[in-house]
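Lab notebook, bench 4. Still working through the backlog of constructs that have no structural model yet. Next entry is a single chain of 637 residues. Request: give me the structure tokens for it.
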Amino acid sequence: MIKVTFPDSSVKEFASGISSLEIANSISPSLAKKCVVARWNDELVDLTMPLEEDGKIELILGGAEGLEPLLNHSCAHLLAQAVKELYPNAMFGVGPAIEEGFYYDLDLGDIKLTEDDLPKIEKKMQAIVASGEAIRRRQVSKSQALELFKHDVYKTELIHELGDEEIITIYEQGSFYDLCRGPHVSSTKWLKNFKLLSISGAYWRGDAKKAQLQRIYGTCFMKEEELKSHLINLEERKKRDHRKLGKDLELFMISEYGPGLPFWLPNGYTLRRTLEDFWLKLHRERGYLVINTPIMLNRELWETSGHWDHYKDDMFTIDVEDGTYAIKPMNCPGAILVYNNSLHSYKELPLRYAELGNVHRYEASGALNGLFRVRGFTQDDAHTMIREDQIGEEVSNILALYDYVYSVFGLNYSIELSTRPVDNYIGSIEIWDKAESALKEACLATGHEFKINPGDGAFYGPKLDFKLRDSMNRIWQCGTVQLDMQLPGRFNCKYIAEDGTKQTPVMIHRACFGSIERFIGIITENYAGVFPLWLAPRQMVIIPVNEEAHLDYAKEIENILKANEIRVSIDNREEKMNYKIRESQMKKIPYTIILGDQEKLNHMVTYRCHGSNESLTLSVEEFVKMVVLEVKNLGKK
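Model written out:
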């Protein structure tokens, strides 16, 4: 017998091996019908999984929050079943839940699917949903699994990598079965609100040297209205796609001669430099020393730091007569060399170095995505050397900086504390525990809530990850604060303590934007290309009503605005005025200034804000004062 504790703290005894579904039925058959999954000892489990020890149970009903990953993972299996029924020779790669949906990688031989095939697959999925097939978990041995999947080379490869004594789980629904750890919903009936979204190519296990599969993306929700809302949201995102806006607004380009290496066009470079200037001003005001380190350094440095062992497959290298050099994938070893260039006293600490460092990492071609996933990017890094007793105060200062920066862009955030990896880390567990506790205490002391992300720390230390939420309710990983008690020792970093002894400092790695490129991609979509005045590459355009009569006055206003560091140009093309105004709106320029007889006579400007049909008139002095203040206030009028 086992003792089962319910959410109301009541305890009942059941026979060992009973399932959550059977427990639900023992309470009420109607309750069992409403159950989707169970939480057993704080972990989600299938309703049919045998329970063989004492524990806490929570029966989770349809409509509960947080079920999206479970639904989407189950829907991936639904997709695979439909494909298998339509294409009996299909073989399958992996089909995980991802943020806001799922995908499944398929090998259909010579059959190449297109977007036009998705409705046919959806129809088959709907039929399976209507049948309400139970989804059951079954345990098999390795040999049994190999027999079951002997006709699927991809599943066979995955099974061969498992231990000989490992118990393998498969999931069955109707005649279809799939290799999976689970958990899943109890029946296909819960998967009716789904949509297949797109199809693309994907290399098996992300390796360009392996077979190219077909990847179908989809999404699934518990409620129909949630699905409809999400699909509307996706359509809006297409309009905001930074790749489209980047082309329309002439921000950046990607050439076939440099995949994953953005070219900044004049407008985009202006935007980038404005963002960098904002960053530099903030850091200088807060006592950071701005440095710049070489883009390429000797392999020995990367071996000392540990990056060679952990990242060499993602590094670009070159062999020259005095050894192997690597283009830096990270800036931290360079900052350490700057620190070690001179001897430091405890009085100098915290010693803060900031760097807009250009780094390169090899990304598979299939993973490249505009500014979001590139091979060359600029990290807004900072590396601070501190005493151990300064950890709390310094992390608090960093959190205050991040609060301010993200508020400027209207981005809310949450924090995750990523702890020591299970393996592939350096240093003692004791030091790791100490570092993790220090980050926890710093967050709590400043009133910042966080959740634990176990095992996702850097190889040299735990970190705080900052998840930003944009105007489309998407989550982005941007900022990070990493506490490092390993690398300073590896590089023999020292400072002279108050008692005259040499001590090893603690190092904080941190980046607020994460990368300039990715952050620009994020805010481009967040603003839908309508940047606030201070950030807009083209802040104003002046349109003279009549070139002959008003061009001189337009040039006068242009000079006044430029003298106040406003980015402005004159549109004196031989086009109709309404066409010019409409184009200014299309280019998302914040202010369109129209100058005619009355404006010239009275030394006024008539202007129109982006997105408005209303024209307003002010004296030149009032207008200049207004826009200069708007720039100074970072877009707040």
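Notes after review: The first helix runs from residue 20 to 27. The two ends are 69 Å apart (CA to CA). Flag for follow-up if needed.
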